[in-house]
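=== RUN LOG ===
request id: a7f3
mode: sequence -> structure
chains: 1
length: 131
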Amino acid sequence: MTEQHPPQQPPTQPGASPEPMPRIDERHGELEAARQYQAPYPHAPYYPQQVKAKSPGGALVASFFIPGLGSLIIGDAAPGLAIFACWCTAWVLLLTFAPLGVLAGTAVWVWAMWYAYTGAKKWNTRHGIVS
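=== RESULT ===
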């Protein structure tokens, strides 16, 4: 015949009391724990985030001189670096096969200016800035 032992409770630290279950508020039907929720920093006031507008014209001018720089200025690092890499490739093509290099270089140059200008306009629109 085997002896049956009562289920054991997990050990608690000395002086610690088990956590009580949240009670349901009878008047409003909500959990007391949800009603007592505290924000991480309850003493800090909330201020809306203020952002400075991106200049579409400035981004366009920057990309006019160095393709991809305008995209970097507006915060699009990956496309800006890709545009600059395409620009460098167009220069290599210009040195090896001039007609293709001129065509590729012109296309990348125009693409860089268009991307920087429209990217700045889209960024401003996403942040509620009319530009």
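=== NOTES ===
Residues 56-122 form one domain.
The longest helix spans residues 98-126.
=== END ===
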